[in-house]
Amino acid sequence: MSELVIGLTGGIASGKTTVSDRFASFGIDIIDADVIARDVVAKDTPGLMAIIEQFGEDILTSNLDLDRQKLRRIVFSDNTQKEWLNALLHPLIRQQMELQTNHAKSPYCILSVPLLVENKLNNMVDRTLVVDIDEATQLKRAMARDNSEPGVIESIIASQASRTDRLAIADDIILNHGDLDWLNTQVKDLHQMYLNILNKTL
Question: Per the structure, how many domains does the chain have?
Fold first, then answer.
């Protein structure tokens, strides 16, 4: 198990994956809640079976995979359905996050959790790293990435912790409104800082 667990978080389209990929390039193990969230609703999983039972087979694509865009539209327009889905998925996702974190081999590991603040998962990490961008940039990037309507993205942003709330719990911050060179420099500096923290505690 890694000696230090860094909780990486940020709003939709803030650049969490880009940041975690940079840490991975230094040989750091990444536990990604978004990847886990997809795995627990893959074909033939209990998670997907429960979703089909709740929403019907129309929630599937032609390939019988979960239609994530359709599910997103449903749950972000119906709070009751959103609460049902969260009650199903959160325990499954948390169990896998704990398992993968316990098996991490790198000196420190990154636990990437978009809803770290909202789901009060701070107790799973030693430090919290927030990827921060302004909402206008966030909306523009999310629309370009997901090909979603502005209203859907705005609903997601509104449902997540505010920028102020995230920054309030941050131990470390990456500003992601510049170019990739600046982002890479910030990640490199943090990587060295985390190694220094470990060297001081050993």
Answer: 1
Per-residue pLDDT tens for 75-91? 988 999 999 999 999 99
Place of tokens 């599910």: 71
pLDDT digits (tens, 9 = 90+) for 114-172: 999 988 899 999 999 999 999 888 888 888 887 778 888 888 888 899 999 999 999 99
In the predicted structure, residue 202 carries a pLDDT above the cut 70: no
Q: How far apart are CA 156 and CA 59, in angstroms?
A: 19
Residue 18 assigned as binding residue: yes
Q: How is residue 118 written in tokens? A: 């909202």
Tell me whether residue 17 is annotated as binding.
yes
CATH of the domain at 134: 3.40.50.300
Query: Is 45 known as a binding-site position?
Result: no
Report the C-alpha dihedral over residues 50, 54, 56, 60, rounded to 10 degrees.
-50
Rounded to whole angstroms, the Cα distance separating 162 from 137 reads 15
The pTM score is 0.88
Which residues form the domain of 136? 4-201
